[in-house]
From TrEMBL:
InterPro entries: AKR (IPR020471), AKR1D1 (IPR044483), Aldo/ket_reductase_CS (IPR018170), NAD(P)_OxRdtase_dom_sf (IPR036812), NADP_OxRdtase_dom (IPR023210). Gene3D superfamilies: NADP-dependent oxidoreductase domain. GO terms for biological process: bile acid biosynthetic process. Residues 21-305 form the NADP-dependent oxidoreductase domain. It comes from the Eukaryota. This is NADP-dependent oxidoreductase domain-containing protein. The gene is LOC115595426. Belongs to the aldo/keto reductase family. Signal peptide: none annotated. CDD domains: AKR_AKR1D1-3. It comes from Sparus aurata (Gilthead sea bream). PROSITE patterns: ALDOKETO_REDUCTASE_1 (PS00798), ALDOKETO_REDUCTASE_2 (PS00062), ALDOKETO_REDUCTASE_3 (PS00063). The record marks K87 as: Lowers pKa of active site Tyr. The active site is at Y58.
Amino acid sequence: MDLTAESHSIPLSDGNSIPLIGLGTYADPRTTPKGTSCDSVKLAIETGYRHFDGALVYFNEHEVGQAIREKIADGTVKREDIFYCGKLWNTFHPPDLVRPALERTLKTLQLDYVDLYIVEMPTAFKPGDTFFPKDENGKHIYHETDLRATWEALEACKDAGLVKSLGVSNFNKRQLELILNKPGLKHKPVSNQVECHPYFTQPKLMEYCKQHDIVIVGYSPLGTSRDASWVNLKCPPLLEDELLVSVGKKYNKTTAQVALRFNLQRGVVVIPKSFSPARIKENFQVCIFDFSLSEAEMKAIEGLNKNIRFVELLMWSDHPEYPFHDDY
């Protein structure tokens, strides 16, 4: 695969395409200064990023949309150059709430369509005004929804032109099969966004998705922000791994660039999240596209797999559709 900073999109099964590297825009609204997301996305567009991964539940889609619109207005990009992925949150799984949720994202972004809209989690929560509904004991309130019915409502959104492509996130094989085997399926999921990095290479899920023309989009491709509220901090820091350090030294690259290159060469889309100007540039520019790992290096890095999941989301592990109890 001949990848360059200007040309690194891969085809999706519905005829659209997705850039292999994107910018994750997750931000904690309590700690992220106002304007940070907007500035970061503008810098990323100037750096060459064309793929942005966002969500209603990140509480910053208004800033991301503003950045995209400003860079379109000043002639840096056209709307069709930008690939934006939005997400359907857990409280919007009932079919009658799906389109209003997408329309809310479009209104917040002030865009006419999103390029990819994905079911963020297979775990439905009680619908309502709060994104994380809890009872008086502080326990999350779940909701029973048929994922296939949710998917049918998404198909209608695609038919209405509100979204170009449909996908899922954090789905295991059984949950993917629910959708793929749905009677009357009109639009297949083109992607599955899951955790994917050298310590968690996802070989079985990758093989299954490959067989069904589903692209893997890897979140936390550099490990994670190590936020104790939802991350397993017992896991060793990925970017300090000796093998990644030594390969990096050989090519005069950072361990982050080696980890990203590893996934790109496997055909995994990566969406590293950063609001650091230096890192936004480091994770993209020629640094990733001007070298490639040898077959032996790819095998050695694959051998680092420890089946370590940084993002376990254990607070929802008692949900009937919690996806990580299954082998894959």
